[in-house]
């Protein structure tokens, strides 16, 4: 280990966990009661759904979905997963629907000026003020990950941690715009959004999951609203993250992307720009473009480690780790600010649990 630093030996290490079995919500295990609210903001009304009750000295988990989805179609498979129940018992959850994306939303009138992603981020303080919540752990996908990042830049004291799936922190360049315009000539809005959510390989295989989400988006009664959200996403500004600079995320961050997913390169680039002492990078094999839909078990396990690293759920039992299972960790340590090298550690878990602690350095984990 470079520098022989004993401190590195004690750094938190997010472990790769090979998970094959699944634990959906058990029969007879009823979902929590939900309360849906709407509040007026300077940029229009926003709807959000609250599960559970606030826990003393604990932040709320606040989610924000991607384009083409709402909170249910984006997050329900993850938060209804069996092993996730241990987490949600310990935190109140706030699921935000972007304006016009909630179930039963009326179509906006022609000419309606949909909020920019920056303005959508500026709606979040109104939600927290309404609920009297002081801090959150954000979980966002795609456009939602961008929105939560912008909010965290503007209100760092209210964000304890971020899980960012498929984040693209960059504004579209001219080449991106040209490609987008050309694609728009030959593809429908729903097909372009599907290409944003899923890999071409997934779309070609046309699995039951793809058929389900193609049907949801293509036949959405609020498709005109979805197109407005899509346009705002494509007009996003650059977040201007800079490692070592003034513009960066101050809280622990877990970046997540599927291997060969549409946004893999963008997430890798984002990882290179964030503080390596605060950032974990999880690249998930066989998860496609939406790991929270296809691999809820793996993502739940990683989320538990992330929360433990923040000092929550210290006594949590990692029930999905089998005895003597080998886990491998690849960590990318920054050298001279520009170059990096990787090292791989292997560890056999005899007790069924693995160590956790605060994020110590940028970690790239393939699982």
UniProtKB/TrEMBL annotation:
Keyword Amino-acid biosynthesis: no
Record GO cellular component, one term: perinuclear region of cytoplasm
Principal localisation: other
Gene3D superfamilies, per the entry: alpha/beta hydrolase
Claim: Cytoplasm is one of the keywords in the record: yes
Alphabetical list of Pfam families matching this protein: Ndr
Subunit structure: Interacts with CTNNB1.
Name of the protein this chain belongs to: Protein NDRG2
Organism the protein comes from: Daubentonia madagascariensis
Species lineage: Eukaryota, Metazoa, Chordata, Craniata, Vertebrata
């Amino acid at each position: 280990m470079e520098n022989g630093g004993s401190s590195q030996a004690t750094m938190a290490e997010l472990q790769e966990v090979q998970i094959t079995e699944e634990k959906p919500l058990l029969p007879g295990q009823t979902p929590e009661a939900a309360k849906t609210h709407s509040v007026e903001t300077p940029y229009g009304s926003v709807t959000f759904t609250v599960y559970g009750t606030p826990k003393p000295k604990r932040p709320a988990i606040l989610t924000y979905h991607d384009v083409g989805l709402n909170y249910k179609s984006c997050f329900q498979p993850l938060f209804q997963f069996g092993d996730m129940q241990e987490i949600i018992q310990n935190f109140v959850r706030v699921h935000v629907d972007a304006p016009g994306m909630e179930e039963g939303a009326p179509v906006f009138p022609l000419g309606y000026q949909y909020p920019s992603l920056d303005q959508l981020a500026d709606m979040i303080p109104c939600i927290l003020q309404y609920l009297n919540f002081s801090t959150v752990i954000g979980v966002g996908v795609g456009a939602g990950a961008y929105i939560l990042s912008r909010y965290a830049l503007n209100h760092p004291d209210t964000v304890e941690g971020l899980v960012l799936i498929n984040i693209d922190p960059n504004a579209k360049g001219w080449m991106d715009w040209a490609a987008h315009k050309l694609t728009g000539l030959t593809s429908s809005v729903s097909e372009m959004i599907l290409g944003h959510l899923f890999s071409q390989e997934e779309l070609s295989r046309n699995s039951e999951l793809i058929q389900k989400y193609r049907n949801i988006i293509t036949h959405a009664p609020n498709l005109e609203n979805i197109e407005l959200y899509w346009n705002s996403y494509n007009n996003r500004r650059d977040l201007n993250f800079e490692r070592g600079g003034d513009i960066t995320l101050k809280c622990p961050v877990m970046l997540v992307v599927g291997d060969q997913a549409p946004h893999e390169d963008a997430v890798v680039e984002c990882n290179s720009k964030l503080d390596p002492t605060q950032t974990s990078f999880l690249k998930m094999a066989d998860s496609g473009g939406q790991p929270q839909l296809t691999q809820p078990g793996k993502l739940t396990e990683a989320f538990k480690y992330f929360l433990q690293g923040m000092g929550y759920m210290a006594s949590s039992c990692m029930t999905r780790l089998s005895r003597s299972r080998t886990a491998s960790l690849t960590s990318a340590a920054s050298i001279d600010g520009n170059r990096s090298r990787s090292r791989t550690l292997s560890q056999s878990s005899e007790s069924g649990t693995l160590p956790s602690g605060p994020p110590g350095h940028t970690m790239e984990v393939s699982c």
